[in-house]
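Re-run with default settings, no changes from the original entry. Doing this only to confirm the output is reproducible before filing.
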Amino acid sequence: MTSRRRGATSILAAALVATGLAACGSQGSNQEDRSDVGVQLFQWTWDSIATECTDVLGPAGFDWVLTSPPQEHVLGEEWWTSYQPVSYQVESRLGTRDEFAAMVSTCADAGVDVIADAVINHMSGKDGEGVGWAGSAYSHYDYPGLYTESDFHQCGLTPNNDISDYKNAEQVQTCELVNLADLDTSSERVREQIAAYLDDLLELGVAGFRIDAAKHIPTADVAAIVADLPEGTRVLQEVIGASGEPILPQDYAANGQVFDFMFARNLTMNAKNGLLGDVLDLGKAATGLEADEAVVFVDNHDTERNSDTLNYRNPTYSLAMIALLAGPYGTPVILSGYDFPVLEPGMGPLQDSDGAVLPASCPQSVGPDVEREDGEWVCQHRWQAVTGMVSWRITAGEAEVTDRVEADGVLAFTRGEAVVLLNGTPEPVEFTYPTSLEPGEYCDVITGGIDGEACTGETVVVDGEVTVTVPALGAVAFHTGERL
């Protein structure tokens, strides 16, 4: 991905202060700086994403944004309707084709690439006839002008053609995932239709794609689909690895980056148990993916609902995001969604009387301890700990971990000119850490950055070492980009 980094520091500071965020460093980021951090703005409208790119994502140093699927889908209030295509028109309850194109252009101007969620494994899961968001008529195996029954798998391996055994690779890749009409991606005709859709999105300016349900598409078929994409197109594949299953995430690495679900599960377990050193040690040995092959995350739109990982309700969630952004393994992406009832995980975002999603609106106060109502946007990407660690990561760059110290439940380490101390215990810990950073006063980016000549949060004094109180299940982080 080509980085188009932000402008002058004064503009950066003004933009972040205007949105209630601390500035990202008095010495700022330049055109070559990059965090390579993405944010999944789940179920955000195109207009809302455009505004967020300009006001927050670009100034804060995010490199890319992952959208929800842009194609026409089945009708319904639930969030998962976006993952049941009925055509490849770029018309959905999140906005029109023109709004999508304008969003991509606006984000590019802010230095933020757009990755579109591409649902190409299947079509709808409705058995009868229906009409999609943009008025397209369809039935389970008939999508006029696009697909007919011969374009779909009929696996014949289970009584209802649904996947029942995930240790059977043929079932996983030719049977239906919860009744979703499974496309025969080995067919040249099917591949041509998919390629035309991806080409259309590229014409609208997207930088790449998240291949939804890539695990359910043979890796050779994914390779054939992405082979003709322009050089530099970013490909992120959803391959949910699990112990004992024959389909492995690393099998897809030749096609592009792969979402590392094993990392997310291990991160959940270790963060809950305060084993922060183990979090730092996660990598290829645990997941099978090289660092540059893996897209790492704390949670996504599925796992925040199925308890496979932490979510915004867990007390160690913020600490896990800090650890994610501090570590050198993988390309991080932060989920930013909306509050949903525990007993109604399928609840969609707030919608108007016609079913169109209402514009996203972050509350004035955001963070892990803020109380929210059902449907209110959580806005994790605006949490100070997250924006602070994005600036920290820009300074850390590609530096490896050095000066690692573990004691009293605290993990402290340095990457380049950036230092972080993480406390996995339920009590504050006073901790002294030797550091070679230049003596002076630094801002703790977990609590606030520089505004003018002062820190908006806590100040850290460095003089050959640093002594700080690391909050319970929290962190202290500082770097040379936030030095007074």
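The two ends are 32 Å apart (CA to CA). The first helix runs from residue 9 to 18.
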